Amino acid sequence: MRRVQFAAWSFVLVFLFGLMVVLSGLPVESSDFYDFYLAAVSLQRGADAYAPQANGVQGFFNPLWAAFPFVPLAAFEPAVAFQMWRLIVIVLLLATLYPLMRLYRVRLDPVWAALIGWLVLLPWFVGQNAPLVAAGAFLAIAFAARAQWARAGALMPLLAIKPQTVPLFPIALLLAGRRPTWTSAFASLGIASVSAWLVQFDWLTAWLTSRWGESQAGGGQTWLSSGLVNVLEWLHWPIWLYPLAILVALGLFWRYHPAEWRQCAAMALGLGAVSAPYIRAGDFPLLLPMFFLLPKRWVNVLVPALIGLFLLRLPVPLLWLIPAIVTSVLVIAWERGVIVRLDAGLP
Question: Is 163 a member of any domain?
Fold first, then answer.
């Protein structure tokens, strides 16, 4: 048995190390990190962080406080800062996943190591800021599970960095935590907004304009869920019907499927991500709590299948099949009553 475990661990570590080596050669100018880096440089110079770059392309589309963590890195050359941010991504995700795994009673083994390592390397590859959102969500789950609702709500500015990828989790958090969560959430958002206002007075208008411009310029063609969204476009129906239908469906689902907070949070994160019309591979760590709810024997089959699907180099619009498959499997497990039970108390 020990030999099997040793062989499994060896294979996983070699796989992850090889994947890291293959992905490590991305030029910083081709990475997502470069957009955040240029926005941080603009803030240092007192310029508009949302202004188009030298090539005429605008790359920063987040609330202004999303650029704050990158400001210290702007003191370094782009290539050096890129590697520093990659290290921060790995440390940040692993540090916030550890308490989450304890919360969901997950014991680390080669399969979990392969899944977590793969999902961590996806945002690491391009230097995404999605780990800030994932870390905020993971810590919010952990705080709320221990009835520390004010601390959970205080993490709302991190969730607001990419609200299009976590459309349901903040709603679930605010409804579950009620007044303490509402108070701390609005207070932290107010502090973040005022801080951004002090740095760039017109940041809110510039941000909203940039988000609208990006959505119109893309025409839905670059969205991983574009096949779903484009159905509405083909029917000439208003796009707001899409999130409305998702919210109604999930509301009915939760109405007749009462869940403990950790289960509800995992469902809100995962289902929100897969139903959002704008999710990238770097956002896939948000699916981890859904994996934690599945029986281990299901995970043993699902993880190699999904990694294999990803390595097939599917066209970008088809990558939404990965979160869609995870969601479908979770719903089947829920209906069959084989979801891991967490009601016995906290670890």
Answer: yes
**Which of 134-138, 260-264, 285-289 is modeled with the greatest confidence?**
134-138
CA dist., res. 131 & res. 150, Å (int):
22
Tell whether 256 is covered by a domain.
yes
pTM of the shown model: 0.84
What is the widest separation between alpha-carbon atoms in the chain? 63
* Distance set, CA 300 to CA 110, 149, 306 (Å): 10, 34, 11
What contacts 16, CB < 8 A, 6 or more positions away? 113, 114, 117, 118, 121
Report the interhelical angle of 78-103 vs 33-44 (nearest 10°): 110
C-beta separation of 265 from 144 below 8 A: yes
What amino acid occupies position 264? Answer: C
pLDDT band at 339 (very low <50, low <70, confident <90, very high): low
Contact 34, 78 (CB under 8 A): yes
Q: Are 100 and 288 in contact (CB under 8 A)?
A: yes
Residue 172 lies in a domain: yes
For residue 345, is it within any domain?
Answer: no
Residues 12 and 114: beta-carbon distance below 8 Å: yes
Q: Could you tell me if 198 and 170 are in contact, meaning their C-beta atoms sit under 8 angstroms apart?
A: no
Number of domains in the chain: 1
User: Tell me: the pLDDT tens digits for 10-68?
Assistant: 888 888 888 888 778 888 888 889 989 999 999 998 888 888 775 556 678 889 999 99
Domain that holds residue 241: 2-336
How far apart, in whole angstroms, are the C-alpha atoms of residue 37 and residue 102? Answer: 34
Query: Which three-class secondary structure state does DSSP give residue 31?
Result: coil
